Amino acid sequence: MRLLLGAVSVGFSALSAAGSAQAQAYPERPINLVVPYAAGGATDVIARLVATDLSSALDETIVVVNKPGAGTTLAAAEIARTKPDGYTLYMTTAAHTISASLYNKLNYDPIADFAPITLVAKIPIVLVTTPSASIKTLAQYIEHAKSKPEGISVGSPGNGSPQHLAQALFKERTGANFVHIPYRGDAPLITDLIAGQVESAFITLSAALPHIKANKLKAIAVANPTRINVIPDVPTMNEAGVADFNAATWFGLFAPSGISEQIQETIYKSAYKVVAAQPFVDRIESMGGEVVNIGPKDFQRYVKEESAQWAKAVKASGAKVD
Q: For strand 31-35 and strand 114-129, is the pairing parallel, antiparallel, or unpaired?
């Protein structure tokens, strides 16, 4: 028995040494960074910014792979089944924490099947109206929405999106009468907003910002605890009369669950330096966002909190996907 136990002990020691050596050697080949959206959007832009400098920090090529479809669940399901060796990473958004409540059937667990690395940044949601609208304040907007029996039209980039759920929470909080009009993404929504085909929208600030600056959209209030530097004259929801109403889409870096703690820490330490660099901070702020840059444990807590919050929003909206 002693001989057997000794052999097992030696075996575990050898495995531990092998795992440690693997972590120390990481990375030894190119890394794929999967993005569950098409190229050109905010998530893709942020992922490519991270990938460029993270590649230098790790001294290895990082390839951004766009895999859009099924509201991010297509890519997420693939990541959940991927070997957790650190060579496939995942940059996703708040949609990741909405999925469990939105989809009736999901063949992965958004929390258990993913290892958080860092919460990179957040971009708040802003309420905008068409320029021709006479509405100037949030109080006027709510009054207008309540006074119309048929409701005020409110667009979103899709059913179950953070923007759609933000409007559902706003409706629940204020009693505003809304008619939700879902679009296939921000671009067609913004086109119709500018043309006056839809009256208003809760939209990610990065998507609306160029049009707000060009006076093609009117920003009423931003769902953020503080004002945003790139639109300093736009009040927060709290300032405008709806207390503690905050909503944002976030951008976070994950790996498949089961990744070694050493490799997870290696990626996080390098990513932290990349995200903390002033040029990166400036770029995120120019999009209307803010850098967060928290580590695996804090990010894990944040993901759980977000999942609970968005579950309430999904219930309020009545949104479901089979």
A: unpaired
| Cross-strand bridge partners of residue 201 | 128, 155
Write out pLDDT tens, residues 160-191. 999 999 999 999 999 999 999 999 889 999 99
∠ CA 156-71-129, nearest 5°, is 10
Nearest Cα neighbor of 186 from 201, 165, 166, 197 is: 201
Confidence at 23, pLDDT banded by 50, 70, 90: low
AA letter at 76: A
Task: Measure the CA–CA gap between 20 and 14, rounded to whole angstroms.
Answer: 10
Task: Report the predicted TM-score, pTM, of the whole model to 2 decimal places.
Answer: 0.88
pLDDT higher than threshold 70 for residue 116:
yes
**48-66, pLDDT tens digit by residue?**
999 999 999 999 999 999 9
Rounded percentage of the chain residues whose pLDDT exceeds 90:
83
What's the alpha-carbon Rg for the chain, to the nearest Å?
22
Domain ranges of the chain: 31-122+249-317, 124-240
Fold entry, domain 124-240? D-Maltodextrin-Binding Protein; domain 2 (3.40.190)
Give backbone dihedrals phi and psi of 120, rounded to 5 degrees, phi first.
Answer: -75, -55
Architecture of the CATH domain 31-122+249-317: 3-Layer(aba) Sandwich (3.40)
Contact assessment for residue 164 and residue 182, using Cβ atoms and an 8 Å cutoff: yes
